[in-house]
Amino acid sequence: MAADSNPSSSHNLRITVERNPSESRLTELNIKCWPKWGCSPGKYQLKFDAEETCYLLRGKVKAYPKGSSSEFVEFGAGDLVTIPKGLSCTWDVSVAVDKHYKFESNSSSSSS
Q1: Comparing C-alpha atoms, which of 23, 38, 33 is closest to residue 80?
Q2: Quick one: 10 exposed, middle or buried, by C-beta within 10 A (0-12, 13-18, 19+)?
Q3: Model's pTM, two decimal places?
Q4: I need a surface site. Which of 2, 9, 68, 98 has the fewest CB within 10 A?
Q5: Is 21 exposed, middle or buried (0-12, 13-18, 19+ CB in 10 A)?
Q6: DSSP states of 48-80 as a string?
Q7: Distance of alpha carbon 64 from alpha carbon 70, whole angstroms
Q8: Distance, CA of 30 to CA of 23 (rounded, Å)
Q9: In whole angstroms, what is the distance from residue 106 CA to residue 54 CA?
Q10: Start and end of every (S)-ureidoglycine aminohydrolase cupin domain (predicted)?
Q11: According to the model, what pLDDT value does residue 12 have?
């Protein structure tokens, strides 16, 4: 049975990590104008009500999808990370995070 046959399954909500994006890609996204957010090391329960794209200036994170203790996505400084709308996960932050972030507005993600 294909894992993606159930669209409401949280396993379709994958965090994607683009490692070391080019300077031109960062400029194109206008990342320096995005708001900033940071957190100290620790564990955080997070729920994403909108798709978030973030660029880590520093830090190291293991993100565990809700209900999973073995499966995780690891990312850190220099990574461009996209977190899908509707994902609940635990961030296990080993190195304090400093990041630029942006939430996708509904108007731009609607393709119809």
Answers
A1: 23
A2: middle
A3: 0.82
A4: 2
A5: middle
A6: -SS-EEEEEEEEEEEEEETT-SS--EEEETTEE
A7: 8
A8: 10
A9: 17
A10: 29-101
A11: 67
* pLDDT tens-digit series, residues 27-49: 999 999 999 999 999 999 999 99
In the chain, the amino acid numbered 27 is T
Structure tokens at 110: 């609607």
Site of tokens 């630029």: 100
Report how far apart the first and last C-alpha atoms of the chain are (Å, whole number): 30
Range with the poorest average pLDDT among 7-11, 59-63, 101-105: 7-11
Structure-block tokens of residue 15? 């965090």
In the chain, the amino acid numbered 12 is N
Which pair of tokens denotes residue 3? 């894992």
For 46-91, how does the pLDDT look when each residue is reduced to its tens digit (9 = 90+)?
999 999 999 999 999 999 999 888 899 999 999 999 999 999 999 9
Do you know the residue count of the chain?
A: 112
